[in-house]
Structure formats: C-alpha cells, structure tokens
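Session log. Operator J.P. requested a structure for one protein chain; no other inputs attached. Running the standard single-chain path with token output.
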Amino acid sequence: YIKIGVIRNPLVRLVSAFRDKQIRKTELLKPGLDYEESSTELEIFRIFVDHMLTKKGNFSTNFHFLPQWHQMNVCQWPYDLLIPYENFTEYIEVFKRHDKCD
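Structure written below.
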C-alpha cells in the first residue's frame, strides 16, 4: 500500500474558508467580524484575513483553520506521496492506470 496525503494550496484554502464561513455563514466565527453593512466582499475579506493573522477569532480552536501539517501529523506518519487537491482527479486517473497494469 501507499500512504497518500491530500494537501491544498493555503491561499485557495483561505478564500474557501472565507466564502464558506463568512459569506455563506455556514459557521459563525466568534467573535464575528466587524464591518459595515455597505462593505464590499473585498473589504470584508481584508478584515477576515486581518482576523486570521491576529488570531482575534476562534481560529486556534477551529480545525478548519489549523495548518495542514498540524492536522496530518507528517512527522509521525511518513507519507509516500502528497497530492495537491487541485490536481486530485489527475492523480486518480494515474492510479487507475497503474492498478490495471498490475
């Protein structure tokens, strides 16, 4: 068997978290972001990033915001391959072809 870890571009992950947690409001961040009702999405994103960088929110206890290396325990579990999430389907096709060759 092969030990595979799927990783995600940190910037893509940040934008995804913003859209999911703040724009779609799937999970309220505590404390909430302080912005005007007339603020643009870009202005709210800047506030969100500032919140992330200064750790004013519940980011240290919310596993969505922990660094990937922390969640994957890369030092304790030596992965054979780290696959970028953005290219996941391409790797699946490679594994399918490899499996047919055995």
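Operator note: Residues 10-23 form the longest helix (14 residues).
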